[in-house]
From TrEMBL:
InterPro entries: UVR_dom (IPR001943), UVR_dom_sf (IPR036876), YacH (IPR025542). This is UvrB/UvrC motif-containing protein. GO terms for biological process: stress response to cadmium ion; stress response to copper ion. Residues 135-170 form the UVR domain. It comes from Clostridium aciditolerans. It holds the Pfam family UVR. It comes from the Bacteria. GO terms for molecular function: cadmium ion binding; cobalt ion binding; copper ion binding; zinc ion binding.
Length: 172
């Protein structure tokens, strides 16, 4: 596929923008993507390197700048693996899956601004779709149950508990 701007180089960056339901696609070569400013990489990246998730996340984090100085951080490191927020920001790589929870206050606003949401809302595989939806529903119900218990809404908590049991029994 040829770059939509220069019409010379091979397009290696594929951008899809959805604004107010209007979908626009743009296929760019790496040079045009950087020149156009669609991808703001402010870290030194070799022009021949590919655009990886780590590079994108690292570039976003670097572009945001001193967010960790301004934000009140509940954890400056991941309690599970010991990765610090500074290391995460610099590398663009999490040390483990718990890093995303530990640094959620700092990275969720960035992800939401870039992606439009902090949870995946796109297509899911047909074969696993029902299982994924059921698991998400169960997690949400368990969170609601904890909130109801904390708020001392025991009748509501009992209803949620019964619903959780029903779903779990249906899965067996």
């Amino acid at each position: 596929m040829v770059c939509d701007l220069c019409k010379k180089n091979e397009a290696t960056v594929h951008i899809t923008k959805i604004l107010n339901g209007d979908k626009k696609e743009l296929n760019l070569c790496e040079k045009c993507a950087k020149d156009k400013g669609e991808l703001n990489f402010y870290s030194p990246i070799d022009i021949s390197s590919s655009f990886t998730f780590q590079n994108i996340l690292s570039g976003i984090m670097e572009h945001v700048g001193n967010i960790d100085k301004d934000a009140k951080k509940p954890y400056s490191y991941c309690e599970n693996c010991g990765t610090t927020y500074s290391e995460f920001k610099q590398r663009g790589l999490a040390g483990c899956s718990e890093c995303y929870k530990s640094f959620s206050e700092m990275i969720n606003p960035i992800i939401k601004r870039v992606q439009g949401n902090i949870e995946h809302t796109g297509k899911i595989p047909k074969k696993l779709g029902r299982d994924i939806i059921e698991k998400k529903k169960l997690l949400k119900l368990k969170e609601d149950l904890q909130k109801a218990i904390t708020a001392e809404e025991y009748e509501k908590a009992a209803e949620i508990r019964d619903l959780i049991r029903k779903i779990q029994n249906d899965q067996k």
